[in-house]
Amino acid sequence: MGFRVLVPLGCVAAIAATIAGASPPPGDARVGPPNARPAKAVDEAPPAPTDADFARHVERLKQRLPGPGFTVVIQRPFVVVGDEPPETVRHRAEGTVGWAVRLLKKSYFARDPAEILDIWLFRDEQSYRKHATALFDTPPTTPFGYYSHADRALVMNIATGGGTLVHEIVHPFVAANFPGCPAWFNEGLGSLYEQCDERNGRIHGRTNWRLAGLQQAIRDRRVPSFEKLCSTTSKEFYERDRGTNYAQARYLCYYLQERDLLEKYYHRFLAQRKEDPTGYQTLQEILGWPDMAAFQREWSDFVLGLRFP
């Protein structure tokens, strides 16, 4: 099968079915350095790429394809490249990428990424590791997928599920819209949508595989305070008990979502980021809990009452 360029036409229909996430072992952090390299964002939005920009991008991309059997789908603001059958690649571009972008922008993001980004969807682990290493000169550090700003690429083993892809789509939008977003919130928001569906016209995170490990950490009294979580540097978040960090951040976002506070928190945190770069003071404001130790007990009871699956 040779190279094909597919440009979806018309609007992408909303999908109500669950975007199934990957199911790694509890506590195993999915993403992080060195592949997930953060971007610097600016307050003034640059011009959006034009149709001509996309056409030139696709022509350059054709020269980089690892071989025959790859299909390219323009799905703004991304270009999707996959080595599954063409209709499967098209379905993933429209039904997962297009769906997630539409709903994430509806809830959070005013701007598209400034640059055209590629989403590489490799059909299985062998293809993923072989081609990611050849294309980007670095072996993947996760079996699932990652976002690299330096390479302007989201790189996926799509056999692990569409939830990994939705998670990674969040990161370039955060980079474009939220200058200086701390790792805990960037990853908390991304990991919330590892398992998600659409409810009342909004993207909605569901419980997922991270729950069991977090519940055990709560029982073992190993979960830090939210003040400590919010104050972690990127290095600390990714390197010090990152499995618990991811899970705690995810289920804080999940709690806010279930109280109809997550979108409100995102937009207020964004507006107050210079005065509150960690987001902790904004969290206190949104929750209305002056005693955050008492809130952590309430949140812990909430998490212990959740179930997955």
Tell me briefly what this model is.
The chain has twelve helices and eight strands.
Structure description:
The protein has 309 residues and is an alpha/beta fold. The protein has 2 domains: 4-19 and 28-179, Collagenase ColT, N-terminal domain (Glutaredoxin); 199-304, no CATH class. 46% of the residues lie in helices and 12% in strands. It contains 12 helices and 8 strands. It has helices at 51-62, 86-107, 125-136, 162-177, 183-192, 210-219, 226-231, 234-239, 242-258, 262-271, 280-287, 292-304; strands spanning 4-6, 71-75, 78-82, 117-122, 145-148, 153-157, 196-199, 202-205. The strands form 2 sheets. A 6-stranded mixed sheet has the order 1-2-3-4-6-5. A two-stranded antiparallel ribbon has the order 7-8. The protein is globular, with a radius of gyration of 19 Å.
